[in-house]
Amino acid sequence: MKNKRALFLTGTLVTLALIVGGSQLWVFSQSRLGGFVEPLNVPELAESTLEGSVRTFDLTLQAGTTEFVSDVPIETWGINGDYLAPTLRVTDGEQIKINVANSLPEDTTLHWHGLHVPAEMDGGPHQPIEMNAIWSPHWTVSQAASTNWYHPHLHGRSEAHVKLGVVGMFIVDDAVELKLNLPRNYGVDDLPIIVHDSPIGLSSGNPLDFIGELFGSRQGDSLTLVNGQHEPYVEVSTSLLRLRLLNASIGDVFDFSFDDGRDFSIIASEGGLFDKPVVENSLLMSPGERYEIVVAFEPGETVRLNRSLLDDDNGAPADSESTLEFRAGSALQNLGALPDVMVTLPETSLDNVARTRAFDMSGVEINGLMMHMDRIDQVVHAGTQETWSVRNLDSRELHNFHVHGVSFRVLSVDGAPPAVHQRWDKDTVLIPPETTVELLVTFPEVSSGGWPFMFHCHFLRHEGRGMMGQYLVVEPDESLDPSNHMISSMAHTH
Ligand SMILES: [Cu+2]
Predict the structure, then answer these.
(1) DSSP string spanning 77-108?
(2) What's the CA-to-centroid distance between 306 and ligand 1, angstroms?
């Protein structure tokens, strides 16, 4: 099925005729893609069936094509479709099973980023799904209402598979969130906002980049897409809009703000709702991070969400551009005011810290090592807390740090308290050059059964080249010495 997702052409037209291979004639006109003429695509909620008390989802990973420019099909990958994936939505306490069929032309995996799952169900590099195979992880959802996501995590191939489009959102609901006066009408006043890269270099400025990419002759710049579109718009029908922001890019750090500089309320980070909304007018997000924000609108106004890119080399703000336009209707349904207090969260306490560990990130190494599938790097005891001190030793390169299977709290950034919106439960944190971030990590109550969890930089180019390590969660009476926990036999059985 052809997947129409045309990016509209605006501005000065440049008409190009290319003769390819002496026979095929390509003609198209373009100068700049986008232009806020296409309504925002909202990923569908994934359907599920009840098998007894188990909510079961069926996902098929598949290759297809998408027309980012009319009549120019580009190879994309998706789940239950040609590009991107449906939104999974589950409730705290429920038993779920996800049948993942791999119809892609390669082995892959599917990792539930942010979900607190048994290590065996995590979908990391040790749970490959071979071509034409079906993998069926299952677990009981046990975490607060939160915005999570899912994407491939095959060692060395995450970047390619994510860039081709295998990215979906994974929302957890719970009884506490349900009682609060928050927008939660999916697709109306509660929108998934997946910000990511175009699958190829759909250069926004130079048609030659785009054409070159089509024929594999050069690497153009990626465009920033929202839910798979460049510069779409949204019609707003309510006084408040909840945006579940996900930075699903392979290596961009976005600084989000609105073009009129308006304030918005940040209500949640990766681990769930804050105690109370935090008002800001900009928000920095590195790959893998999620924040939920609520924005207020006046009838009839038009506002754009802008993003600046932080330069990968030195962390300095680079170009700023609008990514999504909001058009408020002439009459808006009044959703009232956000609650002053949302949830009660345990204060951060260092009373029970069992151990402190240090992680030095540099180049594509952590503690001087690159990822090895058979090597356990760290062993922790189930149910304990540790402080992990993560240092970016590089003087120019940005990194970040993601830990599978857990949430953590950011204790400090170079010794200073983190920003207010960074102080609650997270699973991914930006680490600027020559900066140390101290984390309080709370490990699962049960051992990981010999299956490792990953910790890694979520700039996928770094991760894929080796900037990842593995930790095991073991019983309290087991050794913390990694050399006592060889996994070479397990790594090849699945
Ligand atoms: Cu990195």
Answers:
(1) EEESSSSB-PBEEEETT-EEEEEEEE-SSS-B
(2) 24
Q: Which CATH number is 1-343's, of 2.60.40.420, 2.60.40.10, 1.10.3720.10, 1.10.760.10?
A: 2.60.40.420
Tell how far the Cα of 222 is from the centroid of ligand 1, in angstroms. 19
CA of residue 465 to ligand 1 center, whole Å:
10
- The rounded distance, in Å, linking the Cα atoms of 423 and 260 is 27
Ligand 1 centroid to Cα of residue 402, in Å, is 10
Model pTM? 0.91
pLDDT at 31: 32
| Residue 486, pLDDT score | 77
Q: Which CATH number fits domain 353-492: 3.40.50.880, 2.60.40.420, 3.60.10.10, 3.30.1340.30?
A: 2.60.40.420
**C-alpha 462 to ligand 1 mean position (Å):** 5
CA of 263 to the centre of ligand 1 (A): 31
* Confidence at residue 489, expressed as pLDDT on a 0 to 100 scale: 47
How close is the Cα of 231 to the center of ligand 1, in Å?
28
Please tell me the distance between residue 481's alpha carbon and the centre of ligand 1 in angstroms: 27
Q: Is the pLDDT of residue 125 over 70?
A: yes
Question: b/e map of 432-448 (b: 16 or more CB within 10 Å)?
Answer: beebbbbbbbbbbeebb
Instruction: Provide, rounded to the nearest whole percent, the portion of the chain with pLDDT above 90.
Output: 80
At 13 the pLDDT is 33
- Sign of the dihedral through C-alpha 363, 366, 369, 373: negative
Q: What is the pLDDT of residues 283-333, one digit of tens each?
A: 999 999 999 999 999 999 999 999 998 865 555 556 688 999 999 999 999
